[in-house]
Every structure is written in C-alpha cells, then in structure tokens.
Design goal:
Length: 225
C-alpha cells in the first residue's frame, strides 16, 4: 500500500487547506473503499498530513469505517511537545504565540517552520533552539546552518550534550560564526534568555521553541503566568 500526495499514491491527499492550526484535506482511497472523503486534523504542515495518511491507510486496512477515521482524527490532540501551541502569552506588553516542539533534526526544524508559516502567515517567526548532542550537531552542521537562517530571528542555546563529550569546534557559538548574520543570537543560559528574546522580537510574533534536551524547562518557565 502507498500513501502521499502524488497521483500514484493509493491513499492520496488533495486540496490541502490550512486554517490556522487546523488542516483540512480530501482523501482519495483507491485501494479499499474506492471513495473520497474529507478529514480535518489539528496540526499544520505537510508532514502531519503524511502522518495522518499513514494512519488512515492502516485503519482502512483493518476495515475501520470512514466515519470513525474522520472522528478520531478530528479529536486527536497529539502527544506532549509536538506542536503545543500557547496563545495570548503577554510579556513586556508584547502579545505572543509560543509553539513548543520536540524536533531537533534539521529536517524536522524545517518542516515545523514551514508548517508555522502556513498556519500563521502574517506573523514573524522567531526560533529558539537548543541543539541536541555534539555528534548530531557535527553530522548535521551544514544543514543546521541552512535551516537556522529560515526564521526572522534565531536564538541558540548551548548544545545539550545528552552525556556526550565535547567535540572541538562543534558549538552553538561556532554555528553563529558560520552563519554571520545578526539575526542569529546566542543565549547564555535559561535565566537570562527571556529578557534577551523579548528585547529582540516584535509583538504578535511567534516564538517557536525546539529541541530534545532540557529546553522543556525553559518552555514551562516562559509560558507560565
């Protein structure tokens, strides 16, 4: 069984429409029911559409009804730290939308940035990122340099080691040196990060916080009243 957005896919998504955080699209089932039906999911981005298609394909394989598939997808709110959206966060007289996501690989970061641009097209996007592991940062160094330039501003914490030893020349500061853009800013620690970020961003902005380390502690601190 195949799924995707191409004409060849047996379970295919067409007419994909982003409506804020939600996405509606039509499913063409060429393999099981031979029907078309519309579904709504609660997460933006083409990667979530593909994930949903995979779930739909498995459900159809096990003869789950289209009604139950649509109902389950519309009610599914995901898992923790996968595109958690906090609206109306007010800091220093700035109204912000904070999005928390576990993604830490360049492919994930790019997918989430693109999804956010579709979900919130009239907002600036500011990325706050904590690289994860020295080895991963080394292996993905060039791709990280590319994707970290995509947001309006990027803020970088030090690498979360996850128990690894440091690697020479692999650091957040060296990433910033390689990018050579003023819009990429180093964050020394969690305690001072909020003040630094708020000085640099505009009201009605998106703050997209990503990483697989202890950056979740910063998220909890930032969104609390």
């Amino acid at each position: 069984m195949t799924y995707g957005t191409s004409k060849e896919a047996q379970i295919r998504a067409i007419d994909i429409n982003h409506e804020g955080r939600k996405v509606k699209f039509k499913v063409i089932d060429k393999k099981y029911t031979k029907k078309r039906f519309t579904v709504s999911i609660n997460y933006p981005g083409d990667h979530f559409v593909r994930n949903s298609l995979a779930a739909i394909a498995v459900a159809l394989e096990y003869q789950v009804s289209i009604k139950d598939i649509k109902n389950a997808l519309s009610k599914f709110d995901g898992v923790g730290r996968r595109y958690d959206v906090y609206k109306n966060i007010n800091k220093n007289k700035k109204n912000l939308i904070v999005i928390d996501d576990y993604g830490h690989h360049p492919t994930e970061i790019e997918a989430v940035i693109k999804a956010t641009k579709k979900a919130f097209p009239r907002h600036e996007i500011n990325l706050v990122f904590q690289p994860h592991r020295y080895t991963r940062t080394r292996d993905c160094f060039d791709e990280l340099i590319r994707v970290l330039q995509l947001p309006n501003k990027t803020f970088l914490f030090d690498i979360y080691s996850a128990g690894e030893s440091k690697i020479n020349q692999i650091s957040s500061k060296n990433i910033i040196k390689k990018i050579k853009l003023k819009k990429v800013i180093y964050l020394n620690n969690f305690a001072d990060a909020e003040r630094t970020i708020l000085k640099k961003i505009n009201t009605n902005s998106i703050i997209l916080i990503m990483g697989a380390g202890n950056i979740s502690e910063f998220v909890r601190s930032f969104v609390k009243d």
